[in-house]
Amino acid sequence: MKKFTLFKLLAFSAVLTAFAYTGCRAEEVENFAPESPAMENSAGKAEEKTFDIAPADDAVAEEAAPAEGAVAEDAAMADDAVIDAVPEMAADEEMNAPADIAPQENLDSEFPIEEITPSVGMLTAGEWKDHENWGFFSNLVNTGIITFPSFGIDPTQRISVTVTDSTGTPLPNATVTLNQDSEIIWTSVTDKNGQAYLFEMNGKTGSTVTASLGEISQSMEIQSASTDEQGNIQTDDRQCAISLDTAPVTYPKTQMMFIVDTTGSMGDEMLYLQSDFSAIAEETGTENTSYSVNFYKDSGDDYVTKCSGFTSDVQEIKEKLNQESAYGGGDEPEAVYNVLKETIFSPEWQEDSVKIAFLIYDAPPHAECDFESIISEASAKGIHLIPIVSSNGSRETELFGRALAICTNSSYVFLTDDSGIGNSHLEPIIGDYEVEPLHDIIVRIIQELKQ
Predict the structure, then answer these.
(1) How far apart are CA 430 and CA 136, in angstroms?
(2) Could you tell me which of 300, 278, 157 has the C-alpha nearest to residue 225?
(3) Which of 18, 279, 282, 293 is deepest in the core (most CB within 10 A)?
């Protein structure tokens, strides 16, 4: 439980006790208003959150015993006070009338979709980059707090490659390969900062890294993975820098794909993507940009996958989004493998484009699938696959998403409870992060990746 949430509950309990003692009646409480989805603190800054893996007992005890003065102050609140975390109630103890919009059908969730009129920026989320926090990630893995592989993907043996020209200028769109003799182990493409990542997984190891751009290429040998005193391979971070005597090549075109789980528990995410898409396109720029929207459910539903090609027509994509609704499913896992195989291997990805794919989902995939081939294909094409984990997500769903993000040089994105919309959202095992509108995170990621 988050620290501030525990304190609120304790304070609220003290208030209720005081009301009961003084004989306060429900009808004397006037128009309590629910707390609005706050995403900023009193200083106007985005709230930072910390995942406490193992909070000390003393810290818990301190939270559970707030100062007597604070409790007394809370207990003496006036009748017309606004109590944080108390649901809105009328004087006659009946709930206010619901909003005009009707909830979407939600067949595989016990909670109804919030009856709130959707608008841009209402969903809240966090962003985490394991590549920029590799020491933190390595400690989690090496201490056994999180484990890999996840559905056959093991991102722990990382080789970080930086490619520049002779003056030190980053070279985007260079092809980087990890080789063992003549066998290619992993392939990646440098981003606009000249950065790429290679991986050894499932027993495949490499000895040489090669970077090429056009007709120019350069190779260098790398060290073997490090081991601990018992000979166990540790989470690795081998680094190499390669210089190529050639000019940078940038891609002005961008291909943007949305891959969306449309089972019943995804109603709130569907609703707000439908509301947000036009604003996302407008803010990131539609020039030289094409879009694709793809949906999936699972076997036994009306469809397993429903995929479309790329188009520059924003209105066409918006119409396809608005034609879909979240229903079906009812259990886990879902057809994640089917939709990723169909979309990642699609021949419509163009070589001379920046490639971005958002996977919006809340359930893990089927286990008996070859995800390594799909993710290695995404990496070789230079597709940045960004997971957005939604409500009801489990720990295995989180680790699967983080593995996808690490292996395709991407961010891990997750929805939070701060908006008050939808079902509960899993708190990931990460460091400090800022709570922001999901809309802002998506726009920022796109702008950071575009060339």
Answers:
(1) 8
(2) 157
(3) 293
Q: Tokens at residue 403, please?
A: 């593995």
Q: Would you give the distance in Å from CA 189 to the centre of its chain? A: 22
Alpha carbons 410 and 332: distance in angstroms, whole number: 25
Residue 4, classed as helix, strand or coil, is helix
- Report how far Cα 411 is from the mean position of its chain's Cα atoms: 7
Domain segments of the chain as ranges? 3-75, 124-129+251-449, 153-243
pLDDT tens track for 78-91: 344 333 433 333 33
Burial class (CB in 10 A: 0-12, 13-18, 19+), 83: middle
Q: Tell me, what DSSP letter sits at residue 369?
A: S
Q: Which residues of 314-347 are buried (b: 16+ CB within 10 A; e: fewer)?
A: beebbebbeebbbbbbeebbbbbbbbbbbbbebe
Range of weakest confidence among 16-25, 154-163, 397-406: 16-25
- DSSP state string for 330-364: -SS-BSHHHHHHHHHT-TT--TTSEEEEEEEESSP
Q: Which residues contact 89 (CB under 8 A, 6 or more apart)?
A: 26, 29, 32, 95, 96
CA–CA dist 412, 410 (Å, integer)? 7
Average pLDDT, the chain: 80
Cα(128)–Cα(116) distance, integer angstroms: 28
Amino acid identity for residue 149 in this structure: P
Give CATH superfamily name and number for 153-243: Immunoglobulins (2.60.40.10)
345 phi and psi, to 5 degrees?
-85, 5
Are 273 and 260 in contact, with CB atoms under 8 Å apart? yes
CA distance 332 to 387: 18
Q: Which fold has domain 124-129+251-449?
A: Rossmann fold (3.40.50)
| Gap between the terminal Cα atoms of the chain | 41
CA–CA dist 69, 62 (Å, integer): 15
Q: Which amino acid is at 345?
A: F
Predicted confidence (pLDDT) at residue 311 exceeds the cutoff of 80: yes
Cα angle, residue 436 at apex, residues 435 and 442 outer, rounded to 5°: 130
